[in-house]
Amino acid sequence: MSMNTEESLKEYLSLQLKIPFLAKIGPLARTFDFIANAAPGVKEILTIGKLAWEVRERHYDLVVVDSVATGHIVGQLTAPQAINELVQVGLVRNQTQWMLDILTDPEQTGVVIVSAPEEMPVAETIDLAARLDAETDVDLAAIVVNRVLPELFSSREEALFDALRDPARVQALSDAAGGDVGPVLDAAELAVTLRRTRAGHLATLREAVAPRLPLIYVPYLFTRSHGARATRQVAELLGEEL
After folding, report:
1. Cβ(41)–Cβ(74) below 8 Å
2. Strands across the sheet containing 111-115
3. Residue 215 contacts residue 143 (beta carbons within 8 Å)
4. Most buried among 63, 72, 201, 215, by the most CB within 10 A?
5. What digits encode the pLDDT tens for the residues 195-209?
6. pLDDT > 70 in the chain, percent
């Protein structure tokens, strides 16, 4: 499903405050906007509350959330705790407590960070992992590293590849293949260079996070489009890793 804040508000008001569904919530929505802008965590609580509600009511076997950007996810996850600290008793506190119970139970909830073997994504992943640990009680379940390039050559094969770069051998290969093999060799050299560079970023990531934390690698898919076939490939590769 796609999250709709107004629809979530209608559902919340109907379920918790017994206010019937209306075609347009109008003034109530404007009042909510005023409160949401004045009090920290109110807007976030609607989003995270909707997701927790689906888990609590067991409407689905598994709830997978494509969350907001890195800079906002911590605010959403800490929203119930922020409301709890503001409101000590009453209906609102009761509502946030069961959300906290779901969010902080590692058997029910876990954050999975999706990264890439590049400098900026790795730096952001390390920062987010540290913030989740310091600012929330939500379990960091795993890190998925996307677009990991395959290792093309072993050390022995690399020596052979370097020898093939000799101009005379390139010409001989081109003659045998019936076409210029230079671009193929250039592409292979680029792939090896990228693999080595990205391997360094992966090592940095591994050293920075807890040893127990799984790093799940998804290889780079050399495809021009990302339709159902690519999605199926990613699912199969994730399944093999898990």
Report:
1. no
2. 111-115, 140-148, 215-219
3. yes
4. 201
5. 888 889 999 999 999
6. 79
φ, ψ of residue 166 in degrees (nearest 5): -60, 130
Strand pairing report for 140-148 and 215-219: parallel
Q: CA neighbours within 13 Å on the CB side: how many for 101?
A: 9
Q: Are 86 and 44 in contact (CB under 8 A)?
A: no
Question: Token pair 């076939």 is at which residue?
Answer: 229
Residue that the structure tokens 């008001």 belong to: 13
Give the ranges where the chain is alpha helix by DSSP (H). Answer: 5-16, 26-38, 42-56, 70-86, 91-103, 119-135, 155-164, 167-177, 182-208, 228-241
**Is it the case that residue 38 has pLDDT exceeding 50?**
no
pLDDT (mean) for 123-148: 95
86: pLDDT strictly greater than 70: no
Beta bridge mates, 113:
143
**Contact partners, residue 224, CB within 8 Å, separation at least 6:** none
For 165, list phi and psi in degrees, rounded to 5: -75, -10
- Residue 224, token pair as written in the block: 């021009």
